[in-house]
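Progress report, Aim 2. The chain analyzed during this reporting quarter is listed below.
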Amino acid sequence: MKNRILIGFGMLILMFITACATTTLTSAWKDPSYQGQPHKIMVIGVAKKPANKRIFEDEFVRQLKARGTNAFASYTVMADAKQGDHAVISAKMKEQGADAVLISRMASKKTVHTYVPGSVAYRPAYYNNWRDYYGYGYQAVYMPGYMAEDEYALMEINLYDARNDKLIWSALSETELEGSDQNQIISYIGVMVNSMADQKLLR
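Predicted structure tokens for the chain:
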């Protein structure tokens, strides 16, 4: 019974962590001439922080494998200094038997300003005599409006055929930058993997 409670509590925490970040798919495209599904995908995350790159690639591999598609993280077979070398990437894909490569990067950021109007809050009062009514109006508390600022990461992701370097699938999304980097990564990858599944790119 205790183990069940702990498992349930752990799932609740995971749901809460994932919900802390919000990703919206803004567009997606798939090559209509592409038939079938990739069997093994090399995942490349373009990131400034090496730690975020590893978290990103590991999480993407985990979610792809959970959907029945084999995958591996680029950092496990290539040094960071070689990440921009097309010849090295192609050689590693061939060596690992990958038939597709998935590359994701943050294209840009945007800031959204939203005005939150002020409001009036009243302390409890009654209308039964003028003293109470006057006190009701006099004790009104006005809370001024303010500008809320939300920052979003505009992400793009592309899936290429390893045989001819041709684009198979592409998607753009917006992720609200709140909470930890890891929460944002989990939210983003979940939406992208679902989009790939919707496009019949995963088993």
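Residues 1-20 have pLDDT under 50 and may be disordered. The CA atoms of residues 60 and 66 lie 10 Å apart. These observations will guide the mutagenesis work planned for the next reporting period.
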